[in-house]
Specification:
globular, alpha/beta, 7 strands
C-alpha cells in the first residue's frame, strides 16, 4: 500500500473529513482491519489565513512547499493539499517535488465530465471563485464552463466560510443563504454546483439543493484512495 501525504489544517475541520473518508474507503475496499497509510502535516490555520488576507501568496507557497517536502522526506508517495484555496500555489508546490501532487480541480472535473455535464456553478472562497487558478484549470483542461455568483453572492459564500464553517459553526440560516446563491447559479445556466471549499460539505448535504452537488472534499479524498 502506498502512503498518502496530506497537507491539512486548512482548516482542521475539513482535514478531519479527509482522514475519515480516506480510511473508511480503504477499509471498505480492502476489508478486515485495513486502514490507509497516511502522513499528515497540519498547519496552524490562523497563520495561513493571515497570509491569505494579506495576499502574501509567495510566503504561503514557501510554507506549503516546506510541508510537502517534509512529507516526501518521511515517505509519502503523493501529496494531497486538503484545501481548494491553497491550490492557488499548487503549481509551485508540485514543481518542488519528485512525487506527484493530486490536484483537487482534476479530481472534481473528471466525474462532472463523466456525468455528461458541461456548465457548472462554483462556490468557494473569494480567492477560488475570483482568481483563475481553479476556474481556468477546469476550463482549459476539461472544457467546462464555470459560472460564479454575483458580487453579493460571492461575499456571502466567502464570509460564511471564514466566520462559521472553519470554526465548526453550522447554521440553518447560512444553509438557506447558500441555497439562494445556488438558485442564482441555476438561473444563470449551471447544470451542477461545485462545492469548491473543503468546508462547504459540512453545511450543504445531498438533497440540500436542486442541482447535483459535487463535494470537492469527498471527490479529492476518494481520488487519493484510487
Amino acid at each position: 500500500m502506498k502512503t498518502i501525504g496530506l497537507i491539512g489544517g486548512l482548516s482542521w475541520e475539513s482535514s478531519a473529513e479527509y482522514y475519515r473518508i480516506i480510511n473508511q474507503e480503504t477499509q471498505k475496499r480492502l476489508g478486515g482491519l485495513h486502514s490507509a497509510k497516511c502522513q499528515l502535516y497540519s498547519f496552524d490555520f490562523g497563520e495561513i489565513e493571515a497570509l491569505q488576507a494579506a495576499d502574501d501568496w509567495d510566503s504561503a507557497a514557501a510554507r506549503m512547499i516546506e510541508a510537502a517536502r517534509k512529507l516526501q522526506l518521511v515517505g509519502a508517495d503523493g501529496i494531497v493539499i486538503c484545501s481548494n484555496t491553497m491550490h492557488l500555489v499548487a503549481e509551485a508546490v508540485e514543481e518542488s517535488l519528485t512525487i506527484p501532487l493530486l490536484h483537487i480541480a482534476d479530481a472534481t472535473a473528471e466525474p462532472i465530465l463523466a456525468a455528461g455535464l458541461r456548465t457548472v456553478g462554483l462556490l468557494g472562497t473569494r480567492f477560488t471563485m475570483e482568481q483563475d487558478f481553479y476556474r481556468g484549470r477546469m476550463a482549459q483542461r476539461f472544457g467546462l464552463d464555470v459560472k460564479i455568483p454575483g458580487e453579493k453572492g460571492r461575499a456571502v459564500v466567502h464570509d460564511i466560510i471564514y466566520e462559521e464553517l472553519v470554526r465548526g459553526i453550522i447554521r440553518d440560516d447560512s444553509r438557506k443563504k447558500y441555497q439562494d446563491v445556488i438558485q442564482e447559479l441555476e438561473a444563470a445556466g449551471a447544470e451542477a454546483v461545485v462545492l469548491g471549499c473543503t468546508e462547504i460539505g459540512l453545511l450543504i448535504k445531498p438533497g440540500d439543493c436542486a442541482l447535483p452537488a459535487y463535494d470537492t472534499t469527498l471527490l479529492h479524498a476518494l481520488a487519493a484512495v484510487d
